[in-house]
Write a structure and sequence with these properties.
The protein is mainly alpha-helical. It has helices at 42-56, 62-80, 84-88, 94-105, 111-136, 143-164, and strands spanning 16-20, 33-37.
Length: 165
């Protein structure tokens, strides 16, 4: 019997299937052994279930993802360089400038004006929070409460907007 066709005995744990791939021609290396467990663990099943659930509603949870990302980024910015708050502080005025430019170029009335104003105020709140969190840390004082209330407000409005449009 040739060494190319002979199967070798491989020790495996109970309940594990092994699949041997044939040796590649021209190579003098050991064959690859792929070990596939018979049944995934309960932890793997639970993580897969949660992951599939989150993936299916990923667009509905966009504000939550951005809020968690902002929390992580401001934590990192505070840890590395507290003075980054001085760079972020002028961004708090950007929504007011945007609102003024939009009202001048395309004047709005009624509900459109209300939505623009609300969006500008929320963006001002978010940028101000980011600057303060980068400077003092996201867990300082009332910043966690402001972050949580802004997250709840943004997520609620996002879900209503997605339903109506």
């Amino acid at each position: 019997m040739s060494s190319h066709t002979r199967t070798r005995k491989v020790r495996t744990a109970a309940g594990v299937h092994t699949v041997q791939l044939p040796r590649q021609r021209g190579r003098r290396s050991q064959p690859f052994v792929v070990v596939v467990p018979e049944q995934p663990s309960l932890t793997r099943e639970a993580l897969g279930f949660v992951g599939r659930g989150l993936w299916s509603v990923r667009q509905a949870l966009a504000p939550t993802g951005f809020a968690v990302l902002a929390l992580g980024v401001t934590t990192l910015m505070h840890t590395i360089a507290w003075w980054s708050a001085l760079v972020l502080a002028p961004a708090a005025f950007a929504p007011a400038v945007w609102f003024a430019v939009m009202q001048r170029s395309r004047p709005a009335h009624g509900s459109t004006l209300l939505w623009r104003f609300a969006l500008g105020m929320f963006a001002t709140l978010a940028f101000t929070w980011a600057a303060l969190a980068a400077g003092f840390g996201p867990w300082a004082g009332a910043l966690p409460l402001v972050w949580l209330l802004a997250l709840i407000m943004a997520q609620t409005v996002w879900l209503f907007i997605r339903r109506t449009h």
